[in-house]
Amino acid sequence: MSALYEKIYSIVRRVPPGKAATYGQIALLAGNPRLSRVVGYALHQAPPDVPCHRVVDRNGRTAPVFRQYGGDLQRLMLEQEGAVFTPDGRVDLSLCGWAGE
């Protein structure tokens, strides 16, 4: 596994339950804000201990890839952790956005 992917996984593991980070935020913390898509590729191959469900797009939308498992699994997982969603179905990043601490 590449050093970059390991760095991405390390960052995503720090996102606490009930919070969400964006692909761009993870890319920035990994050292290059232009690597948002690479973050997505890395998460698609992530080991089971990486809480990929806590990463959303810049608008708080969940990833379509989770829907292949039925319904909106990502939303369900986030809601079970206490994440708040807006009426239009996005994670409310103003309440649940991870500050990267």
In short:
The protein has helices spanning 3-13, 23-29, 36-44, 73-80, 93-96; strands at residues 21-22, 55-56.
Number of DSSP helical runs: 5
Give the low-confidence spans.
Answer: none
Q: Assign an overall shape.
A: globular
Structural class: mainly alpha
Beta-strand segment tally: 2
Query: How far do the termini sit from each other?
Result: 25 Å
Strand content: under 5%
Overall pLDDT level: 93
| Sheet with the most strands: spatial strand order | 1-2
Measured as a percent range, the helix fraction is: 25-40%
Which H/E pattern describes the elements?
Answer: HEHHEHH
Rg, rounded, reads: 13 Å
| Largest sheet, strands/sense/barrel | 2 strands, parallel
Protein architecture, described:
With 101 residues, this protein is mainly α. Helices cover 39% and strands 4% of the residues. It contains 5 helices and 2 strands; from the N terminus they run αβααβαα. The model has no long low-confidence stretch (mean pLDDT 93).
What are the key terms here?
two-stranded parallel sheet; 39% helix; 4% strand; 101 residues; globular; mainly alpha
